[in-house]
Amino acid sequence: MKHLLxxxxxxxxxxxxxxxLTDSFVEVSQRAIPKVPALRGRTVAWLFYEDSTRTRLSFExxxxxxxxxxxxxxxxxSSVNKGESLRDTALTIEAMGVDAIVVRHRSAGVPWQLARxxxxxxxxxxxxxxxxxxxxxxxxxxxxxxxxxxxxxxxxIVGDIKHSRVAGSxxxxxxxxxxxxxxxxxxxxxxxGVSTWPVRISHDLDAELADADxxxxxxxxxxxxxxxxxxxxxxxTRCFGLTVERARRLPGHALIMHPGPMNRGVxxxxxxxxxxxxxxxxxxANGVAVRMAVLYLMLAAGRSGAQPPPVDDLVALGAEEGHAxxx
Length: 327
Ligand code: CP
Fold this sequence. Notes:
By secondary structure, this protein is of the alpha/beta class.
């Protein structure tokens, strides 16, 4: 795997491979010293043109737990403010000797453009309204942890689908693993072309909950809306919010998920976000291990292109070194 730009780069077998590898890195993450030497000598840089808490910090934790070096880039304090272009900025960072660039940008397609310009690996950490593949991978992992598999599961994705790159990648990932996906939103919050997506569309959240396996709630992305797409937030919550009463309609085993950040009281009631069946913080925790798996698959082969060492050997080696450090 040279790049991870879209969840389509992986396909169902590739997703399975990442999720299986994630099991090993979950185990590493639970150790007293959560570190393995898998990516010693490799360097990963962040190129975030948009704000992030979860994705940026978890990629950073993932790289450090794999013993990679990291290079931080903050747009706000960089020469971007002096007018340096995206291409020149990326080439400059690559010239310092990086093996992978993790990029988030407000414009769809930027990761693909970088992959054409650069020799190093590129990971899409969210491009505009388009894709967020590592979010989809951690979501698949979290569902699999609780429900065993996505096959024949009903996943209800409710909210601002139009502006959601998470929806774009989750629909691809969930359906490729065999789930039935129902998108629930007012017509104004559905993207153009959604009729070609492999999903069912509904405008009635109440009708979809009783047999759902997952209620996946999306944030109202008010910062991306330049027109009034709903009459009011109060009206939106009344019709499409996951309220306490609606959460009670879910079957006992059903999960409540949200990619974060949440608008508590808008798309999800505060009490619902904190229910035991809400796995929002587990999604965050799994994000580190999933991103370790992605970086490992991308970079462990070494610059020569040799086969990566078996992950079990590295995980065992990390455990021995951890004991040595503690001793
Ligand atoms: N889910 C997600 O992408 O969150 P951040 O914007 O905080 O990275």
